[in-house]
Amino acid sequence: MSKGNNAFDLLAKVLIIGDSGVGKTCLLLRFCENSFTTSHLATIGIDFKMKTIEVEGKRVKVQIWDTAGQDRFKTITQTYYRGAMGIILAYAVNDRESFQNIENWMKQIKEHASEDVCKILVGNKSDMPDRCIEYEEGKRLADSYGIQFFETSAKDCRNVNDAFYEVAREIKGKAALKNGPTPQTNGGSSGGAQLKKDDKPSGKDSKCC
Ligand code: GTP
């Protein structure tokens, strides 16, 4: 495969879910565009951005779907679970309700996502002085689900890249298991992990960053 700017070895479809206001859009913007905004413009339905990163010597194009946390969009966002290879469950460390709701988001995943989807737990807004969820509490919850845990701050960048890299790394690991030790660029995979070039979500304009 030619290694032009758009070339990649693996397309990783990642969904970010969690309560409204925990910072899902800000995490996406920090990762893809290295930007941050203090305003909360609630996501309407779903939006996405892409970024290609290198993971263990392979170029992984991460397509990140930012879902609306508001309840009224649940039906729309649920339809995106099935195609996800990775899911980032986010809460805010200064919002206990968002932390308690992780259990409900997990139920949504069980109901709507594929069984082998990679998951990580993210406690965002770790820069906030009024936190009510300590690191240990978040870690314990992640451990109970057997998933990785990161405390992030979209505001000051803390751990944002690490969280996205981890989910990309886990997806790559699963793809390698499905496709053999070296991901191929000419397809041959089945199920969620696909090795494609230039895959675009249907019916949407790509907002590649
Ligand atoms: P919905 O689209 O409604 O689901 O919300 P969301 O989860 O996408 O939240 P969004 O990214 O819009 O952020 C909500 C508010 O939290 C905004 O005012 C952000 O500036 C703020 N925010 C997001 N991340 C951080 C962070 O890491 N630290 C701080 N201090 N504020 C943050």
Structure description:
With 209 residues, the chain is of the alpha/beta class. It has one domain (10-194): P-loop containing nucleotide triphosphate hydrolases (Rossmann fold), CATH 3.40.50.300. It is 30% helix and 22% strand. It is built from 6 helices and 6 strands. The protein has helices at 24-33, 74-78, 96-100, 102-112, 135-145, 160-179, and strands at 10-18, 46-55, 58-67, 86-92, 118-124, 148-151. Strands 2-3-1-4-5-6 form a 6-stranded mixed beta sheet, sandwiched between helices. β2 (46-55) and β3 form a beta hairpin. It is globular and about 45 Å long. The two termini are 22 Å apart. The protein binds guanosine-5'-triphosphate (GTP). Residues 20-26, 37-40, 42-43, 68-70, 124-125, 127-128, 153-155 line the site of guanosine-5'-triphosphate.
Q: What labels describe this entry?
A:
single chain, binds guanosine-5'-triphosphate, alpha/beta, 6 strands, six-stranded mixed β-sheet, Rossmann fold, 209 residues, globular, disordered C terminus
